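Q: My collaborator sent me two sequences in one message, no labels, and asked for predicted structures for both. Can we handle them in order? The first one she listed is below.
A: Yes, handling them in the order given. First sequence, followed by its structure tokens:
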Amino acid sequence: MKVLVTVKEVAEADDDFAIEGTDIAESDLEYDLNEWDDYAVEAAVQLAEAGVADEVVTVTVGPERAEETIRMALAKGADRAVRVWDDALGSGFPDVASKVDLFEAVVDEEEPDLILGGVQAADTGFGATGVALAERIGFEHAAVVNHLDVDADAGVAHVHRELEGGVEELTDVDLPAVLTVQTGLNEPRYASLRGIRQAQRKEIAATDLSDLGLTDADVESALTITEMYEPESESDAEIIEGDAGESASRLAEVLREKGVSA
């Protein structure tokens, strides 16, 4: 059984950052593997270690810089990786439909039995790509999975889902399927030094639109970022510092200023 894991490099801004145009200054950003995708990688590697999966392939959409992130997945046990990028993707903000177009083309080539991914991305928080991909390629799907047991011989995944209001669901999903996983599914491992060294020798296939039989028009996004700004704070907070006497004195002063009396 082949498992395809969709992973994303997400950006995290420093506490103090500058805005340049419609983006955060590159110098104020740090990149890392999306937290939820890390759980998906761990689930796939555990399936391989249990003899359920024969191959684990990761796929990401990102520039050459993203190879550093995807090598983390390789260091943790994925067998190989596919990185999709094209200049046409760098000129805008890819929407869900554009990403689904790309992943659909990769699925056509890889023909996986199971697709795993994080339930959402830490930067956009859309939480829609996995479900939309399943709908496009005609796979069954389940979202917010926090327990997974795959019976490859029976062609079914027994999943446990965490729903709103504290409701939990145990259901079976026929393979091939797309599952988006929640934190808590497992405990993602740290990449060992041996794994990091081995990852340097594993294949990352750099792929562009033409390789996938797509054109610029196929991934044209319907989303355009028109403005980037820091939201205004609704109120100013004051942190009162000092010893107990000083803090109490300042607190009393603030209460009097606000018209609060005993």
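Q: And the one she listed second?
A: Here it is, processed independently of the first:
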Amino acid sequence: MTRQKRSRHRLKRAVAPYLYLSPSLLIIGLLMLLPMVTVIGYSFQNSAVLRRDPSFAGLKHYQAIFDDPVFWASLWHTLYFTCMSVVFHMTIGMIFALMLNSDRINPTLRNILRVLYILPWLFTAVIIAVIWRLLLEPNGVVNSVLMQMGIIGSKVEWFSSPETALHAVTFANIWAGYPLFMVSLLAGLQGIPKDFYEAADIDGAKAYQKLIFITIPQLMPIIISISLLDFIWTMQVFPLIWITTGGGPIYSTEVLSTYTYKLAFSSYNLSQASASAVVILLISLGLTLFYIRYQKAR
């Protein structure tokens, strides 16, 4: 083989991987990168989309949303909604996964519980919102049960009161999201060697000691990975909040996604909506980079 042919062969080998990747890179560029760059561009323009020749506005729209107290309330509500959801998703998912992995439960009962526990995962956000609106309305089942138990003295308007609306919508999201943790942790539990527990039994370890020193350390990579993904996904929840409360009452359940939507399609302020969307993008990007670094470090 001549020198020229060897050079051509090396060039083909170097280019071949990129040719295989080119269709997916083209789709990602058109469907993801192009909209992101367009929205970033809109955030620096006056009257974006509404005018054919919008003027450059600099950081004016970012300054406007940072000066808006509703934005900071939305950011706080988003953090509360997300953190509480992730913590309870993990806790409930862990409890149910341990229960389904236990040999003390009858196999038939275990299969029935497995179907029941995973049911919330099968419902769409619209169905979940309708279910919880019916359950939590003043004349609904929840108020009736709590009043009969003597926990509350009068009917509570869970989604209509500023004091309870954010907690109610967070509770509905917790109910809808724990199966992801349950299924992932159950798969992890079934992968832990039984030798570890047999050795702990020989040493006289109690159940809580086996949980703390064997089960949780073995599941920690799954817990961290799913928690980070759940944090990113929960930050972007929109349909459940929009259908149940619409961000109200009095902005008490306003989160960044509903705040941005209202700027764009209620106020038609697409430039500020774009600036708000870029802020959400930066927060999500920071979490994504943290997730990628964690995966590389493993």
